[in-house]
Specification:
By secondary structure, the protein is an alpha/beta fold. It is built from 15 helices and 13 strands. Strand 11, helix 6 and strand 12 form a beta-alpha-beta unit. The two termini are 42 Å apart. It binds zinc ion.
C-alpha cells in the first residue's frame, strides 16, 4: 500500500485522494486513485479510461463496483505509464469468477514498445521511480512490475483516430504526443466530455522530467488546440480534480497550450541566437510571464517551467551544453576540487559557504561546499563532518523551497543520503 506522508492539500489533490465524482447526468464517473480512472456507463456495459497503479487496483475495483455491477466492455490506456494501466488484477479475477467476456483493450502502437522498454530497464525504472515518488511511496512493494502487463487487443496506429460505439453512444479516440509518444485521449460527444490522460494534470505539464525520456512540448500544445475544438463541458485530467464547465475547460486547455508554445518558441529563438544552455536557462527564468506563474492550471506541483526549458533544449540539442571546450573531455570533479584545495585552505571554503548561506543564497553556498565534499579524501574528518552537516542543512532548506514534488524529492533524497554518510563516518570514527 502506498504510504502518504505529510502532504499539502495541493499534492493530495494532485494524487487523486478525493471521493469519486459522478457527473453528466449520472452517466460518467471519475475515480481518483493516484491517477484518475474515467468510467462511462452504457446500457451494454462500461467504457473505462485508464485503470491506475497495481497498488490502487483494489480501490478502483471497490469504488467502481459501489457504483455499478456492469461488465467492462472497453478499457482504454491513455498511455503506458505505471499509474495508468497496471491496476487491472481485481477486474480479471471478477471476469473469471462471473464468466464475463474479456473487454477490448485499446492502446496506441507505441505502448507496446514502451512495455518492451520497461522489461529491458526494469531495475533502473524501479530505482528512478522510487526516487521520484519518495515522498508518496514509502516502503511499498515495487511500484512498477513490467512482467505483468495486460496487453491491448485493439491497436491504434500512428496518425490514426479510432471510433467505436457501445450501448448507443459514440466514443472518439485521438492520438497526440505530449508527455509520451503513446498518448491517447478520448472524447465522449453525447455528454461533451474529454478524457485527457496526462495531457492535462492540474499542474504545469510533466515536461522535461529530470529522470525520464524526452517529452514533446510543441505537440502538447497542438493536442490542447485539438481538444479546444470540441468545446467540451467536462475534462477528466490524468491527475487532479474534474474540470467542469465550458469556460474552465477552455481556460485550462488554452493556458496549457500557451505555456507549451511559449517555452518551446522562446528556447528555439535563443538557440537561433547562438546561445548555450546556461544563458538560455537564466534568460528564460527572467521572462517567464506573470500570467503563467500564477495560473491555477500551471501550478508547479509536479512538472515545472524550469524542467520545461530543459525539455525543449534537449529535444533539439546534443549533450555538449556549455560551449566551453574545457567541458568536452572533463577531468574528474574530485581532481578539480583537490586542486582548489591546494590554492586555498579547506576551512576557508567551509566558512565562505556558510557566509553565502547566511546571506541567503542557498544554491551558491551548495556549489562552494561541494568543493570540500568532492575532495573528501583529502579533508580532515572533523571539517569534513562540518561540511556534510552544512550541505545537509542547505539541501533541507532548498528542498523546502520547492513546489514541484519531483524537485522536492530529488533534493530531499540528496539530504537523506548525506545523513547516512554522516552516520557512517561517525560510526567509523567511534570504532577507530
Ligand atoms: Zn500519470
Amino acid at each position: 500500500m502506498i504510504i502518504m506522508f505529510n502532504l499539502d492539500e495541493e499534492t493530495k489533490k494532485f494524487l487523486g485522494l478525493f471521493e469519486p465524482k459522478t457527473f453528466a447526468h449520472g452517466i460518467c464517473h471519475m475515480i481518483g486513485s493516484f491517477a484518475n480512472v474515467g468510467v462511462i456507463e452504457t446500457r451494454d456495459g462500461l467504457v473505462v479510461f485508464d485503470i491506475s497503479t497495481k497498488q490502487f487496483g483494489k480501490r478502483v475495483f471497490k469504488l467502481i463496483r459501489e457504483i455499478t455491477d456492469k461488465p467492462i466492455k472497453y478499457l482504454i490506456y491513455s498511455h503506458g505509464h505505471f499509474d495508468h494501466c497496471f491496476g487491472y488484477a481485481p477486474f480479471l479475477n471478477e471476469i473469471k469468477q462471473k464468466g464475463f467476456e474479456m473487454p477490448q483493450i485499446i492502446a496506441h502502437e507505441k505502448l507496446l514498445d514502451r512495455f518492451k522498454k520497461y522489461k529491458m530497464l526494469d531495475d533502473y525504472h524501479n530505482w528512478i521511480n522510487s526516487m521520484q515518488f519518495a515522498s508518496v511511496a514509502g516502503n511499498q512493494e515495487r511500484a512498477t512490475d513490467s512482467s505483468e502487463t495486460l496487453n491491448p487487443t485493439i491497436i491504434i496506429k500512428d496518425k490514426q483516430d479510432y471510433m467505436f460505439n457501445l450501448g448507443g453512444y459514440n466514443f472518439e479516440l485521438y492520438h497526440d504526443k505530449g508527455e509520451t509518444d503513446d498518448s491517447i485521449w478520448m472524447y465522449f460527444p453525447e455528454k461533451q466530455v474529454i478524457f485527457a490522460g496526462d495531457l492535462m494534470i492540474s499542474s504545469f505539464p510533466n515536461i522535461g522530467n529530470p529522470y525520464k525520456v524526452q517529452r514533446y512540448p510543441k505537440q502538447w500544445a497542438l493536442a490542447m488546440e485539438k481538444m479546444l475544438k470540441k468545446d467540451a463541458k467536462y475534462l477528466v485530467p490524468g491527475h487532479g480534480p474534474l474540470i467542469e464547465g465550458k469556460n474552465k475547460v477552455k481556460n485550462a486547455l488554452t493556458i496549457t497550450a500557451e505555456a507549451m508554445n511559449f517555452v518551446h518558441d522562446k528556447v528555439i529563438e535563443k538557440l537561433n541566437e547562438g546561445k548555450w544552455f546556461e544563458q538560455i536557462y537564466h534568460e528564460m527564468l527572467e521572462i517567464y510571464p506573470k500570467k503563467f506563474q500564477d495560473h491555477d492550471y500551471l501550478r508547479p506541483v509536479y512538472g515545472c517551467y524550469e524542467f520545461g526549458i530543459h525539455a525543449v533544449y534537449r529535444l533539439y540539442h546534443g549533450w555538449y551544453n556549455t560551449g566551453n571546450p574545457t567541458d568536452l573531455f572533463p577531468s574528474k570533479s574530485s581532481d578539480i576540487a583537490n586542486e582548489f584545495l591546494k590554492i586555498n585552505d579547506p576551512y576557508h571554503y567551509y566558512e565562505h559557504s556558510k557566509n553565502i548561506f547566511e546571506k541567503g543564497d542557498t544554491q551558491l553556498a551548495l556549489h562552494m561546499i561541494d568543493i570540500l565534499i568532492k575532495a573528501s579524501t583529502k579533508i580532515e574528518l572533523n571539517l569534513l563532518l562540518d561540511a556534510y552537516n552544512l550541505k545537509y542543512k542547505l539541501l533541507k532548506k532548498r528542498a523546502k523551497e520547492q513546489t514541484s514534488f519531483i524537485a522536492f524529492n530529488i533534493i530531499n533524497n540528496g539530504a537523506k543520503e548525506i545523513k547516512e554518510i554522516i552516520k557512517n563516518y561517525k560510526n567509523k570514527g567511534l570504532k577507530n
